[in-house]
Amino acid sequence: SLLSVSETSMSCVLNQDCILPCRIRNEITNMKWERQYPRSLIVSYNHRGSRYSESFRSRASLFEDQISRGNGDLLLRGVKVDDEGEYECTAKINGSYYRHYSDLTVEAPVSDIRIHQDGNRITCSSEGIYPQPELTWSTEPPSNTTLQNRTTVHQTEEKLYDISSSLTVPDGSDRIYSCTIRTRRNQRRATLTRAGQQIYTKF
């Protein structure tokens, strides 16, 4: 019989380690972790120990010394964008089943942002971001006309996003120009002063 079902939403940072939770108050004698879509077994555990699937063997591990105390957490090393999705932990205790779902999202925050001016053109760019970032321009003092800019976004083979935007500055402009790149997790701003200095701000 199925005793309980629970769910957790997780957000982990690209290339870092991530722990998917599966905690039960009783001793676990039998358990498995599966990926939902496409459905695939990651690891199964019983009194003989644990067995990992080929595709996860080098990257996933249970805390085996703690399973008997009800800790069925799964450690996933070096998280990739492709790891996003739903994971299912099923544990058997005294003939009853406990099921826990972890919905994993992966994020690569905005880390490095660059701004430079070449003639009348100011360019702002950043690379290796996930999910797709937003880029906005602003000026000080504020401009009452729309800033004419061209933004391009490129997705790499690793599914990360590179973003670049160019702005044409009117002759004799004495405004200070700033570019902000943001994702759900964080944002960074780059400012070009009248003297051509670059100022970088973290949020």
From TrEMBL:
PROSITE patterns: IG_LIKE (PS50835). GO terms for biological process: cell surface receptor signaling pathway; cellular response to lipopolysaccharide; immune response; negative regulation of T cell proliferation; positive regulation of T cell proliferation; T cell costimulation. Signal peptide: none annotated. Its main location: membrane. Residues 1-105, 109-193 form the Ig-like domain. Keywords: Cell membrane, Disulfide bond, Glycoprotein, Immunoglobulin domain, Membrane, Receptor, Signal, Transmembrane, Transmembrane helix. It is a single-pass type I membrane protein. The keyword Acetylation does not apply. It is found in: Cell membrane. GO terms for cellular component: external side of plasma membrane. This is Ig-like domain-containing protein. It comes from Xiphophorus maculatus (Southern platyfish).
